[in-house]
Structures are given as structure tokens and as C-alpha cells.
Amino acid sequence: MAEFDTLILDITDGLATISLNRPDRLNALSNQLKSELLEAIRHIANPDSGVRALLITGEGRAFCSGADLAEGGMNADRDMGANLLATYHPILLELAALEIPVISAVNGVAAGAGMSIAISADIVIAARSAYFLQAFVNIGLVPDAGSTFILPRLVGTARARAMMMLGERLPAEKALEWGLVYDVVDDDKLMETASALARKLAGGPTIALSGIRKLIADSHDNSYSEQLTAEAMAQRKAGRTNDCVEGVTAFVQKREANFTGR
């Protein structure tokens, strides 16, 4: 496994933890961090990695403040879209394509593309001091990195539009009220809580969890009939796993299931 300079990757007992590690820059997304994040995600996606769940967080007092504006994101034609296509989209698409559950533990600010990464997770846990910010309009830009797709689906169009147009902070407690996050915990309990949840998922029926992830993602585009068919196909796959046999057996025997991810 490669060594990284701008993030920390730990893989223990099937759980991968990525910690964005530019605390002096509030974990702003430099070109190097984006490159290393993509490399880490690709390593995790390899079935030989043994990873069954991913937890993403940030070192220091921020999750991620978004793009590193000091580094610049425009070419000679001032085409910031080119930077998105080349460096951001591969990360977001490969993160979405993972066949394992993803959890984000949001400490401090999650702004711009950093917010997009945070809310791309299946389950978001936030520290009480954390906040979310659609910062783009404050520098004359439109939201990107998937925000206009994900955010309205989580909090509704009216709230998403207001967040994007006003560019104001959304505190963690309000984010919980709006349904943006799953839970808010005291700052000193964030990693303990998020890690426990991530370990539970890493020890779960991986193929079933992957199926849940894909079914929910596909439901945005499917008709009701198409979604019923998709459920049946996913259930066929899950029903043929060793984990399904173990889960049913454990239920009948009134004991905890020992899932292996197969």
C-alpha cells in the first residue's frame, strides 16, 4: 500500500479509515490531496483489500474546507469546469461506486466540495460544533462536486436552494433537524461513535449492505415497477450468500450472526 502525505489511511479488521490530513489548511482539497484520495479509494475498492466499510474524517479542527483556493483551480481560459472534470469527478464517482457502506464523521467545517464529500456518505455523523456550508456563491460560483444532486434529495428543494443562494452556515443541530445528518454527538465522542458504527457495518453482511446502497441510489431514476424488479434481483444475489444462510441460522438459534462478507 502506498504512503500518503496529505491523508492517513488505516485498514483494521475490514474497516478502512481515511483521515484528510492538511490540518493547517483546514484539509482544503489541494491537487495532491485529491490525487491521494482517489488512489486511496481505488485501493479500498479492490476486493483484495479486504475492506468492508469506509469511514472518512478530517484531522484537526475541520472535516474539509473545500477547494484549496490558494492553489488555484482555473486554467488559462478560466475554465474551472475542466478542473472538476479532471480531478473531482473521478473521486466522487468512484466513491459512489464502492460496494461497501461509507460513513463520514464531520468535525468542524464541511464546506464546498468538502461538504459534497461528507454528504456523499451513506451515514453522516456530525460533532456538535460542526457546520455545513454551501460556500460557492460567496466567491461568485455555482455549487459543484455533486451538491446540486445530493443536497435537494436530502433536505428538499426549498432548503437546498436557500443554502446554495444564501451561502450561510448550517449548524450541526439544524442539519440533524433537516435530515442532512444521521446523528449529532458531543465533539469528544465523535470518533468513538462513528468508529463503533463503522465497525458494526464492517462486520455486517457486506453484499446485502452493498445492495441497499445501490438500490437507494438507483431509486432516484427508476419507476416503481423498475425498482420492484431491482429489489428482486438484489434479493436473489443476497439470498445466495453465505451471510444469508448464517443470518437465518443465527436467527433460528437465537444467537448473534457471524457475517463474513461472502
Describe this protein's structure.
The chain has a six-stranded mixed β-sheet, sandwiched between helices. Strands 4-6-8-9 form a four-stranded mixed β-sheet. The chain is 45% helix and 16% strand. Strand 2, helix 1 (31-45) and strand 3 (53-58) form a beta-alpha-beta unit. It folds into two domains: 7-202, Alpha-Beta Complex (2-enoyl-CoA Hydratase, Chain A, domain 1); 206-252. The protein starts with 6 loop residues before the first strand and ends in a 10-residue tail after the last helix. The longest helix has 18 residues, at 80-97. With 262 residues, it is an alpha/beta fold.
Secondary-structure blueprint of this entry?
Blueprint: E1 7-12, E2 15-20, H1 31-45, E3 53-58, E4 62-64, H2 80-97, E5 102-106, E6 109-111, H3 113-119, E7 123-127, E8 131-133, H4 147-155, H5 157-166, E9 170-171, H6 172-178, E10 183-185, H7 190-202, H8 206-218, H9 224-239, H10 242-252
Parallel strand pairs: 2-3, 3-5, 4-6, 5-7, 6-8, 7-10
Antiparallel strand pairs: 1-2, 8-9
